[in-house]
C-alpha cells in the first residue's frame, strides 16, 4: 500500500511563517518529525507540535479534533492531543491546522510485549472512560465503529494478498467474529485508530501509559473497534488485564469482545500489508498473527 501523495507542500518554513502570522507568542525551532497518510507533524520548541493535513481528504479529520477534543479531554484519565491553538488557512495553505502539546514518550512498539502489563491496565481504564454515549452530531466514520459485515469485502481482499498459511489463520478467526451479535447500544465515543503506534509509553521506570495521540479518526459507533487493541498490543496476560480494567463499561461476557477480535483482523491485516509504515507497523501485524496462532 502506497502513501497517498501530498496535495500541498508543507515544510518547516511554512509552519514557522504561519505560527508567526497567527500565534506569534508560540515560538521555538520548527522541525518536521513525521509525514504520514494524512498529516505532517512538526515539533515546535520543546513543548509543542503542529499537525497539518497534507491532503483534502484528511482536512475534515483535523477539524474533528479541533471541534471535539477540547470537550473530551477533561473526561479522560490520560493525556491526549488536545489543541492549544487552532490555526486557520493562510499564506497559501488551505485548511485548518492544530498546535498541540508535545508529549515525551516512546511508541508502545518500542516496549517489549511482556513488559506492557501496566499499560494494559491503564488503557483498559482509559477506554472505559472514553466509551460513553456520543451526541448525535458527533462525527461518523465510513470505516470505524460500523458493523463488521460492512468491512467484509475489504478485509477479504486484504486476506487474499497474504501468504496462504497466514491468510488461513486469519480467515478462521474472522469467521468466528463476523457472526457475533451486532451492536445494539447507543453510539459511543471512539478513538477510532487505537493501535500501538498511537500509544506513548513513559521514557523512564516501568513502562506506563504516557499519552494517547492522533485523534483524527475520533467518531461515534460500536466501541468494538477500539477494543481490538487487546489483540494488537498485548499478550494473553496483558489482554486479560486490559479486559478486566475495561469491564466496568464492557463486561467480559459481552459479545463486543468477539466483534473486537474481528476488528483486530481488519486492522492487523492492514499493518501486515502496509510496508510504508515500516518495521514497527509490520511488527504489530506479526504480533497479532502470532496471537491468533496461539489462541
Describe the protein in words.
The structure is a single chain. With 295 residues, the protein is an alpha+beta fold. It has two domains: 12-101, Phosphorylase Kinase, domain 1, CATH 3.30.200; 106-294, Aminoglycoside phosphotransferase (APH), C-terminal lobe (Aminoglycoside 3'-phosphotransferase, Chain: A, domain 2, Alpha-Beta Complex). The protein has helices spanning 12-22, 59-72, 117-130, 152-160, 164-178, 224-227, 229-233, 236-246, 256-273, 278-294, and strands at 30-35, 39-44, 48-53, 79-80, 85-87, 97-101, 106-107, 188-190, 199-201, 209-212, 219-221. Helix 3 (117-130) packs parallel to helix 8 and helix 9 (256-273) crosses helix 10. The two termini are 28 Å apart.
Spell the H/E element sequence: HEEEHEEEEHHHEEEEHHHHH
Number of H- or I-type helical stretches: 10
Q: Give the uncertain stretches in residue-range form.
A: none
How far is the first residue's CA from the last residue's CA?
A: 28 Å
Proportion in helices: 40-55%
Work out the radius of gyration: 19 Å
Beta strand %: 5-15%
Gross geometry: globular
Structural class: alpha+beta
The CATH topology annotation of the largest domain reads as Aminoglycoside 3'-phosphotransferase, Chain: A, domain 2
What is the strand arrangement across the widest sheet?
1-2-3-6-5
CATH class of the largest domain: Alpha Beta
Amino acid at each position: 500500500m502506497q502513501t497517498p501523495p501530498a496535495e500541498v507542500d508543507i515544510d518547516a518554513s511554512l509552519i514557522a511563517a504561519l505560527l508567526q502570522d497567527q500565534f506569534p507568542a508560540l515560538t521555538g525551532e520548527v522541525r518536521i518529525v513525521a509525514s504520514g497518510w494524512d498529516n505532517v507533524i512538526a515539533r515546535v520548541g520543546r513543548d509543542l507540535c503542529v499537525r497539518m493535513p497534507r491532503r483534502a481528504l484528511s482536512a475534515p479529520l483535523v477539524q474533528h479534533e479541533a471541534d471535539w477534543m477540547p470537550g473530551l479531554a477533561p473526561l479522560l484519565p490520560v493525556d491526549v492531543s488536545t489543541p492549544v491553538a487552532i490555526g486557520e488557512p493562510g499564506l497559501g495553505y488551505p485548511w485548518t491546522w492544530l498546535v498541540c502539546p508535545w508529549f515525551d514518550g516512546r511508541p508502545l512498539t518500542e516496549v517489549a510485549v511482556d513488559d506492557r502489563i501496566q499499560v494494559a491496565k491503564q488503557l483498559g481504564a482509559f477506554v472505559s472512560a472514553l466509551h460513553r454515549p456520543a451526541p448525535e452530531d458527533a462525527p461518523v466514520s465510513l470505516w470505524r465503529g460500523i458493523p463488521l459485515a460492512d468491512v467484509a469485502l475489504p478485509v477479504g481482499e486484504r486476506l487474499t494478498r497474504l501468504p496462504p498459511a497466514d491468510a488461513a489463520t486469519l480467515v478462521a478467526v474472522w469467521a468466528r467474529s463476523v457472526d457475533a451479535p451486532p451492536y445494539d447500544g447507543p453510539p459511543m465515543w471512539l478513538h477510532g485508530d487505537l493501535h500501538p503506534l498511537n500509544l506513548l509509553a513513559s521514557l523512564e521506570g516501568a513502562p506506563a501509559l504516557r499519552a494517547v495521540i492522533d485523534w483524527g479518526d475520533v467518531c461515534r459507533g460500536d466501541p468494538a473497534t477500539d477494543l481490538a487493541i487487546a489483540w494488537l498490543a498485548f499478550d494473553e496476560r496483558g489482554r486479560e488485564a486490559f479486559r478486566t480494567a475495561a469491564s466496568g463499561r464492557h463486561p467480559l461476557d459481552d459479545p463486543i469482545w468477539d466483534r473486537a477480535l474481528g476488528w483486530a483482523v481488519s486492522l492487523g491485516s492492514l499493518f501486515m500489508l502496509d510496508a510504508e509504515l515500516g518495521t514497527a507497523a509490520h511488527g504489530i501485524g506479526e504480533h497479532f498473527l502470532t496471537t491468533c496462532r496461539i489462541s
